[in-house]
């Protein structure tokens, strides 16, 4: 079954995303603090927006705050506001902070891990008592705000390292929702490509058709920037493509991948020892698999062997490697 959540960017078929949306609906139905986790580009802001629109606060303010984009020296005044004359250069009438602007509605605190420790205490007070203290104020002010926080960093590890307060983490982690990376829900890629192909066709007044091999290459790609990277790649294709058909060569160019090559037929131009011939073919297969899969683990799966066997054979044939993602290797052959 295909799903499309209207007015959001969530298009999915994968059971993992269906589970995420189901939890988000549950969270929207009650006034509970939500913590969204996941890699950059998976759609944390879109999910926060979805929760707000599905909630009883949908007709009230939804204030988005990127904590990582606020200079540390300004963060307290931006979040909690200030009284007239609180500091040099302060507005004469004072200023409402983001929490006051969201009063009665919802505040989305993205990159929550970037809030410095000395301000985490003030945020904890908001969660505990729904009170804020403006800079220069003599008394706290009551507010009514629903908090949705998000991070692409492991807060538990930051807590263990003393960089994030444990009590604040537990207050935020009432309703955790982990959004899976795009590489773990690849069955969604054709749906996403088709959706954004139609959107950009309307925007740029041109049509692009993706071949099956182009889609297959996009499904094989690991998408480190997740859905955001996919959307940007599709738009770039619309902007730069001179042809109406997108094939695997175009995808390889736009994603900076190895260009696909025609399969080399096994030909015999001279008689060589059988053992040498088998070794030559085996080495070529290993190089192709590693270039395609990018890691030993994935390449071993393609070749139907154990990763340890593949590592041993790569060393045997002089295929070098350098540090990379997951199992620690990208191929860099001596060819």
Automatic annotation (TrEMBL):
Coiled coil: none
Flavoprotein recorded as keyword: no
Residues of the Sigma-54 factor interaction domain: 10-239
GO molecular function (one): DNA binding
Keyword rRNA-binding in record: no
Keywords associated with the record: Aromatic hydrocarbons catabolism, ATP-binding, DNA-binding, Nucleotide-binding, Transcription, Transcription regulation
Any one Gene Ontology BP term: regulation of DNA-templated transcription
InterPro entries: AAA+_ATPase, AAA_lid_NorR, Homeodomain-like_sf, HTH_TyrR, P-loop_NTPase, Sigma_54_int, Sigma_54_int_dom_ATP-bd_1, Sigma_54_int_dom_ATP-bd_2
Record protein name field: HTH-type transcriptional regulatory protein TyrR
Taxonomic source organism: Geobacillus stearothermophilus
Lineage, opening ranks: Bacteria, Bacillati, Bacillota, Bacilli, Bacillales
